[in-house]
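Hi all, posting the design record for the shared folder.

TITLE: backbone redesign
STEP: 1 of 1
STRUCTURE INPUT:
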């Protein structure tokens, strides 16, 4: 329960446990057997037990209010508090903090060896699924009346996201034992997405090595307060489901962003992408016209970026998941506690080759996509209480899009509308417009 105190008549407690509250201070209580947990304002949860010399009486007029995102999301030691946070944020479970002495190697060695095994048959089956589903999508677009086109575009955009996952496996050396085959398949899988394979691979490896590390993780960061701009408020607000387009442009086409020994491979990938654009786009336009190019390529490509953005947001963004500087960063905590498993409708999981079974992928990127579910079952058995899990829902998305904005060491995130309320109408609009059910 959370309440706001209108007045306090008497409070007698040990000063080391809790200081006398001010009026209108927020108090959150959690009850367990014979104990009461109190949380005053931004202070951490304190455990108070009744003693002969230490009793307290609180007389208050209280109004029930939901736990807000700013209520110290780091305080996740208490089971009841985590359950309340999970409900408020749209999660199925918020995991407790992983002990400092647990290493990433400890978690990896707990996984069965079979989940690391490459199966060529299963790998090529995923290629067949993606090619078939994409071809079906193109057929649906060509045959659908206008009012069914959104469904055809949704299917096709999801199908080509499967191409990305195949290239993703190739980049992590979990598609084939033949590394040349992986480079060829990865490059080809990325071409319809206009994604240069090698630049993406180099930057993505850094994301895995430094997940949720401030200034180092190449996935999306919290915004720094001094860098707040209107464009950023829009990008992290209503346009966030397409933010990966900006990430794609900024990170993957500038050879200056890569080490000298990487530049040659980067240039080869860029040449392949530009060749595909030079040949493929005119071919589509010659057969179907410019409207056909929009209909058959651009809109499905935007659908792919919707999933790319959404998956990235959900995998690593929540009010209770911190970004840390290098000197405070812990690999095991970042990969196990800082990654989210999210269930999507079955057809999306099939077309996207289980990429959203994401925690085992961050424990070891060498696990092929078709073994991620078996690996996740093992993690549940051995480390289940530390996992963050959700099923996709509107409350989850609303939490991410309206709360997880500006970096704050104590609260992890501060929403834009708290810092720059006069410029944050995109965020206040989302708070009113987005559904809130989980």
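Okay, here is what came back for every position:
SEQUENCE:
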């Amino acid at each position: 329960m959370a309440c706001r105190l209108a007045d306090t008549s008497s409070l007698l407690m040990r000063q080391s446990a809790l200081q006398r509250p001010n009026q209108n201070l927020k108090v959150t209580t959690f009850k367990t057997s014979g104990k009461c947990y109190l949380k005053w304002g931004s202070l951490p949860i304190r455990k108070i037990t009744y003693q002969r010399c230490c009793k307290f009486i609180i007389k208050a007029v209280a109004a029930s209010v939901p736990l807000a995102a700013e209520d110290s999301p780091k305080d996740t030691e208490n089971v009841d508090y985590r359950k309340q946070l999970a409900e408020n944020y749209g999660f199925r479970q918020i995991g407790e903090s992983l002990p400092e002495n647990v290493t990433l190697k400890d978690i990896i060695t707990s996984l069965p060896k079979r989940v690391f095994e490459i199966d060529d048959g299963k790998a090529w089956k995923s290629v067949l699924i993606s090619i078939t589903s994409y071809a079906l999508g193109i057929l649906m677009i060509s045959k659908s009346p206008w009012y069914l086109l959104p469904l055809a575009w949704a299917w096709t955009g999801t199908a080509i996201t499967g191409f990305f996952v195949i290239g993703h496996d190739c980049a992590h050396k979990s598609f084939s034992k033949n590394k040349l085959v992986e480079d060829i398949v990865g490059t080809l899988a990325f071409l319809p997405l206009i994604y240069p394979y090698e630049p993406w691979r180099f930057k993505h490896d850094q994301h895995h090595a430094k997940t949720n590390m401030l200034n180092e993780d190449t996935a999306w960061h919290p915004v720094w307060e001094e860098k707040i701009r209107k464009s950023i408020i829009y990008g992290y607000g209503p346009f966030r489901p397409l933010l990966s387009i900006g990430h794609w442009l900024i990170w993957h086409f500038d050879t200056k962003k890569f080490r000298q020994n990487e530049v040659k491979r980067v240039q080869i990938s860029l040449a392949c992408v530009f060749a595909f654009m030079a040949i493929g786009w005119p071919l589509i336009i010659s057969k179907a016209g410019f409207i056909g190019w929009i209909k058959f390529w651009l809109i499905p490509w935007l659908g792919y970026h919707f999933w790319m953005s959404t998956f990235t947001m959900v995998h690593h963004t929540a009010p209770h998941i911190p970004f840390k500087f290098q000197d405070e960063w812990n690999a095991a905590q970042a990969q196990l506690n800082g990654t989210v498993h999210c269930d999507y409708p079955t057809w999306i999981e099939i077309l996207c080759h289980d990429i959203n079974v994401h925690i085992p992928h961050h424990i070891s990127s060498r696990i092929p996509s078709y073994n991620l579910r078996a690996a996740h079952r093992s993690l549940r058995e051995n480390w289940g209480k530390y996992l963050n899990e959700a099923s996709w829902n509107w409350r989850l998305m609303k939490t991410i899009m309206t709360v997880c904005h500006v970096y704050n060491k104590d609260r992890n995130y501060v929403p834009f509308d708290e810092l720059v309320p006069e410029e944050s109408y995109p965020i206040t609009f989302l708070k009113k417009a987005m559904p809130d059910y989980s």
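COMMENT: The chain is about 50% helix and 10% strand.
Let me know if anyone wants the other runs.
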